[in-house]
Amino acid sequence: MAEPQPMVQPSSTRRSTRIWAGLGAAVIALFATLTGASAQLPLADSGQAAAASNEPAAAPAGSTWDVPKQTAGAIAPAAGSTDLPTPPGTSPPAGGGPPAEPIIAALAADGIPSVALDAYRRAARSQPSSCGLPWPLLAAIGRVESDHGRFGGALLRTDGTSTRKVIGIPLDGIGSALIRDSDGGRLDGDLVFDRAVGPMQFIPSTWAGYGVDGNGDDVVDPFNIYDAAAAAAGYLCAAGGDLSTSAGQIRAVRAYNDSSAYLANVFALEKAYAAGVPGVTIPILGVEPAPDSGPTLPPVNPGPPLATTDPALS
Hints:
It is built from 9 helices and 2 strands; from the N terminus they run ααβαβαααααα. The chain is mainly alpha-helical.
């Protein structure tokens, strides 16, 4: 008795099966595309794909240090909106003050000129380690005060000076403290009232006590960002003590300019500039304890900082 032979599908049937299977896969793929679902496809080389996904981003190029696009300080407003959201981890100042980052996206968007960045880093390194001054704090103050020495269209030269002198408003008591001329107009050109000068916006009387030569050219010049940053660093350490703590930073910045809005802007910018810099303490206003005592040093700039009053930012 002959053994039964296995049944063999006709070739036309096998072709039909393959066609229908292909159509089914196409329909599934089309459905995934329309619904936003993701289909898992086999990788040709999963190890290579994983390595590519973990590849670090290239360092920023050019003469400007750019703020990382995904930091809290680079939050963009919604279309048609003039108010920026408060970034995660940042709270409005206590007492119902303004939001912590009303203009931070605009302030941080243009980065830090390489000359200014070098000045901030040098100035921070020049202070005793017990101070713990982080350069992003200096950078935040420099941005709020003068757009890193670029206010009014000025440009920074490689030696740290700018193409035009940055001079603040007269401190005539209208929207600012009242401070009459203290230097015969030598630095600010005003014989009636004092004005804050230079990239870190020192009033002449405070510069007289804290001005230093920050770049070793034997000149103490508040209009040079190396000298101004070094003076600001020494002032902040003297005013705040340990700047690796929230209380120390709050005390130091309050001494520099005693304004809740100023504090909020400076700390939000410091957070943006410190992205990727390990070990920087960023005070969270309204959460961190207030300093034990108020400012004991004369202010650096008791008026509204220039970069936050620039019409271009409004």
